[in-house]
């Protein structure tokens, strides 16, 4: 960790994962420009030719935050979203936002090209279930209050094919944000060549899966030892996150 704040946030985040007590992290919450999400930070490089890659783009919230952070001046945006229903909502948003030079990709990224189980809900386009994933059944994650508010929910598990970041990206990113329901570690493994060659700024939610807490930073160091690491606590669209920046 490159500064005292990062070291303290790391310590408190590990403590939270052990005890379940998130309150100590609130002392480090940064809310200068909350609409900028991951990019509300002095660490974000100021330039007008960014190539931004968003893995786990959801409905485009972080994509819009990026566009605001650079005041609309960028070279290209590539947005990956694996869930079919959410992907449709992402495309609908972009129809109205009219952002130029944006490519969307409906693909699930992972550490390899393989067949996996995908857990989601069938009517995701209407309900916008925000936790489709490759690890746990949707009915365990889905809020019962949301089910009451939104109507009947049809859970599903289907067989899907994943691919890697190295296989799927033909641009050289300057900023790479990955926030993909716990698959971040595996997605990074599938992007070794890209990250080694391009060294984009990495923006990741830290500690989504407990088993990744002690191995995420060593993985990035192994891929590219030139990275420096920082941690900040952010409120991103109402969700409190410990964000790991590698620059």
Account of the 3D structure:
It is built from 10 helices and 11 strands. The strands form 2 sheets. The protein has an 8-stranded mixed beta sheet. A 3-stranded mixed beta sheet has the order 5-7-6. It has one domain: Rossmann fold. Helices cover 32% and strands 24% of the residues.
Mean pLDDT: 88
Number of strands: 11
| Low-confidence runs of at least 5 consecutive residues | 144-149
In CATH, the topology is named Rossmann fold
Hey, roughly how much beta strand do the residues contain? 15-25%
In spatial order, strands of the major sheet run 1-10-11-9-8-2-3-4
For the biggest sheet, the summary is: 8 strands, mixed
What is the succession of H and E elements?
HEEHEHEEEHHHEHEHHEHEE
Q: Helix share of residues?
A: 25-40%
- The CATH homologous superfamily name equals Vaccinia Virus protein VP39
Query: What structural class results from the helix and strand content?
Result: alpha/beta
Tally of distinct domains = 1
| Rounded radius of gyration (Å) | 17 Å
The end-to-end span amounts to 11 Å
Helix tally equals 10
CATH class: Alpha Beta
Q: What would you call the shape?
A: globular
CATH architecture: 3-Layer(aba) Sandwich
């Amino acid at each position: 960790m490159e500064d005292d704040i990062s070291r303290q946030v790391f310590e408190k985040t590990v403590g939270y994962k052990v005890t379940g007590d998130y309150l100590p992290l609130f002392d480090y919450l940064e809310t200068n420009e909350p609409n900028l999400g991951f990019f509300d930070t002095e660490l974000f490089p100021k330039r007008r030719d960014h190539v931004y890659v968003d893995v786990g783009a959801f409905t485009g919230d972080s994509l819009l935050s990026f566009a605001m952070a650079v005041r609309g001046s960028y070279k290209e945006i590539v947005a990956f979203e694996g869930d079919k229903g959410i992907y449709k909502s992402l495309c609908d948003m972009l129809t109205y936002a009219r952002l130029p030079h944006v490519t969307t990709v409906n693909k699930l990224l992972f550490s390899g090209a393989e067949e996996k189980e995908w857990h989601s809900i069938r009517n995701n386009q209407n309900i916008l279930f925000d936790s489709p994933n490759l690890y746990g059944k949707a009915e365990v994650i889905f809020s019962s209050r949301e089910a009451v508010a939104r109507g009947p929910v049809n859970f599903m598990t289907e067989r899907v094919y994943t691919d890697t970041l190295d296989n799927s990206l033909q641009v050289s990113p300057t900023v790479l944000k990955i926030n993909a329901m716990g698959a971040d570690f595996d997605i990074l493994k599938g992007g070794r060549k890209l990250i080694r060659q391009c060294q984009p700024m990495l923006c990741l939610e830290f500690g989504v899966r407990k088993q990744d807490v002690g191995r995420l930073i060593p993985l990035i160091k192994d891929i590219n030892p030139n990275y420096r690491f920082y941690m900040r606590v952010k409120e991103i669209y109402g969700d409190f996150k410990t964000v790991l920046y590698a620059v």
